[in-house]
Every structure is written in structure tokens, then in C-alpha cells.
Amino acid sequence: MKPTEKNKKYWNPIIETLPRERLLQIELKRFRELLRWAKDNSPFYGRKLHGIEPEDIRTMEDVAKVPMTEKDELRAAQEGKEPYLYGDLLAVPPERLSIFHQTSGTTGKPVYIPDTYESWQWVVEVWCYILYAAGFRAQDRVFLPFAYNVYIAFWQGHYAAEKLGCEVVPGGALDTQGRIQKMKEVKATALMNTPTYGLHLAEVAKEMGIDPKRDLNIKRMISAGEPVPEPTRLRLEEVWGADVYDHIGGTEPGGWGGMCSEKNGLHVIEPHYLFEMVDLETMSKPISPGTKGVAVITPLCRRCIPLIRFNLKDVMMVMDEPCPCGRTSLRVNQIGGRIDDLRKIRGVFFTPAVVEEVIRGQFPEVVEFETILTQEEVMPVLTLKLEFDPSIGEGQYKELRSRIKEKLKIRSNLTFEIEIVKQGGLPRYTLKSARFKDLTKR
Amino acid sequence: MEYDLRAMDREIKLIDESARRLRELGSGIETVEKNVDSILAFTFLLKRNISDVVE
Predict the structure, then answer these.
(1) Which of A2, A134, A219, B1 is the most buried (most CB within 10 A)?
(2) Do residue A121 and residue B41 have CB atoms under 8 angstroms apart?
(3) Which residue has the higher pLDDT, B22 or A106?
(4) Which of A336, A356, A371 is the last residue of a domain?
């Protein structure tokens, strides 16, 4: 590997272009080391990995024999256990901890994830790979329109951008209008955002007479906090006139994948992570590229709360062909939403991701939407609430309603009840959106 | 010029060893101990990013 201008497209040209076999060797070695560490230092894994000898793990087939870790287990290992907050998961003395984060608690009680100074620097480092692949450079002035709170996403982004040499402008204490004014004032060139809030910012900017594409200076944007389906990503690119990149991560594993300039799938940040896919039916059998499965991840260098074969419950597919960007890491497509959101309705598998795909991809007239699943007598009913752009006259509602219903039927094989909501009638989200409500679970 | 990974690895190890020696010398001085911890957090990353590639 020679130091050339070309290498400047990589944060780490040595690791990012390693042959796959070598990446895997490093990952397996790190996996063994992590297993040993977890067994010896985390009471939770001491029990869970009883009978497993790290030195016996030599191949991916061996890795698959190690039990997966589920989110519920993390909750149970923390609740009511000492040391307070982290319980049996903690693998370092509590006095070494330097930062606290927690999950949003969308699927139950939050999980608390701390970091030591060292493990936090690793989390930030991994995000440097993500930002660099998305074109963030020292010349950028990066605006973060959020109060980061106890959630990890934007803290990682903030510190990684700082490490890249970017100038970071935290816009948390402002309201949406104030943030738009600040972006204009400082001529921010890059934005970190949830996709939902990216669209909302653009909507509010237009109400203020500011066209994001024409009047602001945003050249690139990275999405965090929630997945960005391709139609939403393209819509963001259109309204902002910027390159929009997705990334993937979570509180428990940290940010583990990101989009490169090809904008085609997400590169797993190898060999910092070991990525696996298991099949949807058995949730254990490894599957080959090109097949839909459930993602399983192991952060290999974060030791304060080790996480071994964490079931992400995201439906994905590994892409088979090498990426023209030259990175040799695995590429994945987030294609099916989360297993937790999958419902069988009238015999058909439904994921709310298809609604977003249809609405964001084909109906720019819709500014906000919400899908509600209810049970009427024996039949489940899907209702889609829609809020149209103020420029859409009521005369157009009937035709739009009918087209949306038809497109949804074609895409999902299900019939939706459509309800039109007045302007501002649906919630706007800044962090994780909740556009799907299952009221049958009451 | 190729990247000399072995030479890079040697320098990373030297920084690491030097930082640990400094901590011993300044044992009990908070500013020494905590700043050495920070240096070691970054040598940890350099090891993961460079040294681990050297076979």
C-alpha cells in the first residue's frame, strides 16, 4: 500500500483495503480475545459462556456455536443487580467509567451502556471511518441540530467530526427556526440528522422563506438515529441539494456501518466488528450473501460492557459484489425493517418500512404520515393517516387518496383505510420516529 | 515509498511503553496518571488500526 492521493478517500487505507481473508483472521483473533475477557470479567458472560473455550473458536462455523445475546438478557442482567445501573454486564471496575448512555426504551425498559475513556475513544474512532467514507473532511463546518441528551448517536458524531478536524456547531438549545437561522449564519457545510428531522427542517425552512437547496450551504448530510429508506434518502438529497449518507448503529454496539461515495449499501466497519447473518426461520443458521436474514454483530474492541453475537433483529442482506470504492469490508442492505415490527396481517407479512418506501418515494405531496394497526372484531385493520403539503388543495385529496391506496395495495398486498389529517395534525419527530402504532397489543 | 508497517508498529509500542514508564514515574500525580490514560487510549487505537495488521 503506497501513500497516494487516492488513499485519501480512506480513513485507514491499510485496514479498509485488506483482503477479506486477512480481515477475517484479525476478527477471529479479536473474537477469541473478547470471549476470554468477557468470561473472566463479566459475571453475565461468565455464566453464559460456561463450557465454551475461546481457543476453540477458529472458524465462522465455530463462532456460530457461541450463543447469541438478546436485548432482554441485557435488561435482566442489569435490573436490580450491583453495581447499580450496569449489574452483571460490567466488565471493568465502576471507577473506570467515564460516560453514560442508554437506549431509548422503545421496546421496553432502557438498557444502560457506559464507556471507559478508552472504549469511548474506540466508539468515536469507528465513527471516524463512517464520517470519512461519507466525505466529511477537516474543511467542513458540521451542524448538529439536536440536544444529544443520554442517547449515543449524536455524541459519537460530534466527537468523531471533531477528531476528523471538522468544526462542530452544536445546535441543541435552539428551536427549529433558530437552528435554520444558525445554519445560515455560520454557513454550515454538513449536517448530522435523523432523516425525519431533515425533512422537517426543510419544511420549516420553506415556511420561513428559506429554500435549503438555494439559501443554505449544506453539501453533505449523514443520517443517524433511525434508518433512512432509499426513497427518503433521495428525497432528502432533492430538498437539500446535498449528498445524503446513511449509517447504521445502536447504543449497544455503537455505529457499525456506513455508506461510501457509491451510496449503495452500508460498509461494515471491519475488523472492528464481526458481522454475521442468520436465517429468519431458525434464527441460528448462518446464511450466504444475497439472502435475507437477521443481522448479528460483535463489537470487537469495546470491553467495558462486552457484547457477543448481539441479535440486532434487523432484516438485512449481504451484498455479494465488491464495492467500486475499493473497500473490502462486507456491504449490507437494510431491506426489511426490524423483526419486532414484522406483523402477519390477513396472512401477509407486513413491515411498516413499505409504507415509508411508498410515501417518501412516490408522494412528495405528503409531509407526514402515521400507520395504525387495530383489530375490529376478528379483522385487523390498517389505517394510514396522511398530512398533505399546504400547497395541495382539497380538490386533489380524492385522487391522491385513491392513488396512494392503490400503490400500497400493489406493494404490500394489503388494503389500507386512508384518513386525511389537517395541517400540523400529526406529530413531528426529532429523534426516533414512531410512525407505526400497533393498537392490537393493548 | 511503501508504508513500513513494522516500523510503524515499533513506534506505537515505544509510545505505549514510554507512556507506561511515565505513569510509574508520576505515580500518584493525578494529571500524569489521567493524561497517560488518555495517551494509552490512543495507542490502543493505533494498535487496533495498524499493529494488528502486522503478522
Answers:
(1) A134
(2) yes
(3) B22
(4) A336
